[in-house]
Amino acid sequence: MTGLKLVCISSLPAAYPAKHEGRHRNCWLENPSAETPCFFDASWLGEVCTRQDSYGYEEREGHFSPCFVMRLEQTGDWRPRFTEHIPKAIADHYDPGFSPVHCYAKEDRGQDLSSNITIYPPKGFSHLFFPVSKFNPESYLLPMVAVKLHRIPKGSNLTVECSVVTPNAFFLWNNGKVVLRFEAV
Description:
Layout: E1 3-7, H1 12-15, E2 63-64, E3 67-73, E4 98-99, E5 101-107, E6 117-120, E7 125-126, E8 144-149, E9 152-153, E10 157-164, E11 177-183
Antiparallel strand pairs: 1-3, 2-9, 3-8, 4-7, 5-10, 6-8, 10-11
């Protein structure tokens, strides 16, 4: 299926090279080509999700701070479109060269915990990684976005919904959305 998928965090180091190689380009400095797609440095996500803190799934001082990673998979010829209507929650980080990811979290008791969310990179998915079909599949690295929930109280049950903000998200599986349920017990 095409679309936004959750990724097993512990498998990331094996799937992504630790260093920029000749078969990838640093797209902060130059545009990709068919043979040399953008390099995605998985260590960038280490600022949000780390093995050292059990990815936030261990209780600390009565709270949890879990994180998860998402990527856009099997998108083929799909290319994100420019977004005109940006949700206020992500307007500060908006860059037209990116498709932002917007997440919100709500406790079963109705409390909105969206302000307890960090998304990294904050701009979302760079458009330079799309369309996937134009790149050599042997060297293409799927871009990722990490989401961290901060200080979720023990005993909380919450639902988190994240979506890619682009007018053509309807071409993606589940309209470019993922929904997760956390039980902080």
